[in-house]
Amino acid sequence: MRDQEPAPLGAERRLSTKEAAELLGVKPETVYAYVSRGQLSSRRVSGGRGSTFDAREVEALARRNRRESAGGSGSGGELSVRTRITLIENDRYFFRGVDAVDLATRHTYEEVAEWLWTGRMLPGRTFTAPAASVSVARRAVEALPEHAAPTDRLRVATIAAATTDPLRFDLSEEAVLGTARTLIPTLVDALPPAGHHRHDEGPLAHRLWSRLSVRKDPDEASLRALDAALALLADHDLAASTLAVRVAASARAHPYAAVSAGLGVIEGPLHGAASGLAHRLLWDVLEQGDAAPVIAGELRAGRRIPGLGHRLYRGEDPRARALFALLEQIPRAEPALRAARAIVETTARHTPLHANVDLALAVLTASSGMDPTAGETIFAVARTAGWIAHALEEYGERPLRMRPSGLYTGPKPPQTLPD
Prior knowledge:
- With 419 residues, the chain is mainly α.
- It has helices at 17-24, 28-36, 55-70, 100-106, 109-118, 131-142, 150-163, 173-190, 204-212, 220-232, 240-250, 255-265, 274-288, 291-300, 318-327, 334-347, 357-366, 374-395; strands at residues 14-16, 42-44, 51-54, 86-89, 92-95, 98-99.
- The longest helix is centred in the C-terminal third of the chain and has 22 residues, at 374-395.
C-alpha cells in the first residue's frame, strides 16, 4: 500500500516516505535506515501501513548531508583543500610546479625550503639559529629523560624557542619567513650529539649528521644523501601532520604552535615513525642473512611489512628511487641495499609492492651508524619546511575555515536525563 498523502500545513508539516526520500536524494529504504539509526523520527499513518516524517527534520538532515558532501573531494568524501605548494600525480610529485626529485637532487635542503616558501630559488641559502633561542631550547631538551623520543625533543625545542620570540604572534609573511629560517636550525642545534662531536656551523645536513651518527667524519656522498633525504621529505601535500598544521594556522596559531601540532601527529607508526620500523626489519634481515624467515615472522605476528607500498603511488615511490640512487654511490651502504632488495623481492612473491621512502631512509640510517629513531628525526626536521609553507598559505585564507561540520549519528534528542 502506498503512503498516505502528507498532512496539511499547520504547526507541523508531514512528508510521505516518497517525499522524504526525494528531498534527501535517497531510496525509500534508506529513509527507514535513518529512522532505525535515530536520525529521523516517523509516525505511523492511522489505519495504514505507511509512515510520515516531520518536514523540518528531513530538511535539517538533508542540509547536513549536503554539507558533508560539499566538504569532500568527490573521491571517497575526503577533505579537499586548495593549495599551490605540492602536486602528486602519475607517480611523480612537484613543488610549485617543479619536479621535486630534480629540486632535491640538484639543490640543498635550505634552497628547496626557500622555494617552497617563496617560489624563489636562492642559491647558497643557509639557515642560522639565534644563540638565545638555541640556548633555551638546548637546556629544555637536556632536561628530558634519556629515553625521550626524537619527536619529544623536537616538540620541547619548538616550545622553548617560541618563548624566546616576542614577535611570534606576528603572522605577516615577512615575520613568518623569519621564524622559519631560525626555527629549523634551532631544532637541529638543540639536539644532543650522537657521539663526542657536534657541529654547530655549516650546512644543516652536516650539523644534523653530528646529532644522528656516531661516525665523526662523514664522506661527501653520505652528506649529500642526508641532504637530499631532507629535501625529498620537505613536503608531501596534505599528509595527516600537514592537515593538523593547517587547522592550527586556520585558527591563527603562531608558526611555532602550528609546527608543534604537526609534530604531535607524526609520532604514529603510519607516519613519521614508519622508517624506524623499517630500520629494525632491515637489521633483522642483515643479522639472519635471509629475508624469508624475517618476513614470515612479521606476517605470522599479524604485522604489515614496513617500507613497502604507498597509497598515493601505484608504482615506485619517486622519493625512494632518488634516495636509493644516491645510496648506491656509498660503498658501505651496499649490505643494507641488498637487504632492502631482498625484502622487496621476498614480499613480491605474493604482494607486488614497491619500496617506499621509509625503506630507503632505513637504508640510509642503518648504514650510517644511526639509531633506528634517526629516520623519525630526519622526517620531522625535513617536513618542518613544508609545514611552514602550508601555514603561510593558510594565514592568507579566511580564518577558521578548517571547520568541518559533524554528521551526528547518535540518539535523536531530547533523551531522558540519565540517573
